[in-house]
């Protein structure tokens, strides 16, 4: 009888341990499911933030193609300006490009500077960035408030017949002027 009672007690202990393990296993499975859901939500938030960052970065780059009739909008820390290619002419072994800036603010913008990139495009019209040329440029003309300002640049090494794009990035300024 003692053996039967001991065997029954061992079975009960093992059964209770199995139930406890089963309860712990269900709790762990629920916790893993919650963590997986939180990870998925975090990944979605990260993708949304990356997209917002790309959109914000694209608003700070002007991508221009000769022959396009429109302009590109550039967002500066003090407001927006526009830029377009007004004219492209041959110049030595490259091109002379007239850019027209539209100052949409009510302040005169001084010391406009940017990283200037230019080059060719492939048959699909995509910029060939690996062959692009670049340099830092500072525009000597002040951008009058609410007006167009024209500025000319010489782009070495790419004649007008091959010039496929002009890109301005990292656009900044050194000062502003306001009416008194």
Determine the CATH topology of the largest domain. Answer: Immunoglobulin-like
The percentage of residues in β strands lies in 35-45%
Which overall shape is indicated by the principal axes computed on the Cα atoms? elongated
CA radius of gyration is 32 Å
Give the neighbour order of strands across the main sheet: 1-9-6-7
- CATH H-level superfamily of the largest domain: Lipoprotein YajI-like
State the order of secondary-structure elements, H for helix, E for strand.
HEEEEEEEEEE
Tally of strands = 10
Number of helices: 1
End-to-end separation in angstroms reads 108 Å
How confident overall, as mean pLDDT?
84
Number of domains: 2
Q: Structural class, from helix and strand content?
A: alpha+beta
Helix content: 25-40%
Name the CATH class of the largest domain: Mainly Beta
Low-confidence stretches: 8-12
The name of the CATH architecture of the largest domain is: Sandwich
Task: Summarize the structure in words.
The protein has one helix spanning 2-58; strands spanning 62-64, 72-76, 79-91, 94-103, 108-110, 113-119, 133-138, 148-155, 165-172, 175-177. A hairpin with a 2-residue loop joins β3 (79-91) and β4 (94-103). With 180 residues, it is an alpha+beta fold. It folds into two domains: 1-58; 62-177, Sandwich (Immunoglobulin-like). The chain is 32% helix and 37% strand. It has a four-stranded antiparallel β-sheet with strand order 1-9-6-7, with no helix packed on it. The chain has a four-stranded antiparallel β-sheet with strand order 2-3-4-8, with no helix packed on it. A two-stranded antiparallel sheet has the order 5-10. The chain has one helix and ten strands; from the N terminus they run αββββββββββ.
């Amino acid at each position: 009888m003692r053996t039967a009672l001991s065997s029954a007690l061992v079975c009960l202990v093992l059964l209770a341990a199995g139930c406890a393990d089963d309860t712990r296993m269900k709790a762990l499975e629920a916790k893993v499911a919650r963590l997986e859901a939180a990870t998925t939500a975090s990944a979605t938030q990260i993708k949304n933030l990356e997209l917002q960052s790309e959109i914000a970065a694209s608003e700070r780059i002007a991508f221009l193609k000769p022959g396009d009739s429109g302009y590109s909008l550039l967002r500066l820390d003090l407001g927006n300006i526009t830029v377009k290619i007004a004219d492209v002419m041959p110049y030595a072994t490259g091109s002379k490009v007239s850019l027209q800036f539209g100052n949409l603010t009510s302040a005169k913008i001084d010391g406009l500077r940017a990283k200037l990139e230019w080059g060719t495009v492939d048959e699909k019209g995509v910029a060939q960035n690996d062959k692009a040329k670049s340099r830092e440029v500072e525009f000597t003309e002040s951008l009058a408030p609410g007006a167009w300002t024209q500025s000319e640049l010489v782009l070495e090494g790419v004649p007008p017949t091959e010039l496929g794009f002009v890109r301005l990035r990292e656009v900044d300024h050194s000062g502003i002027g306001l009416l008194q």
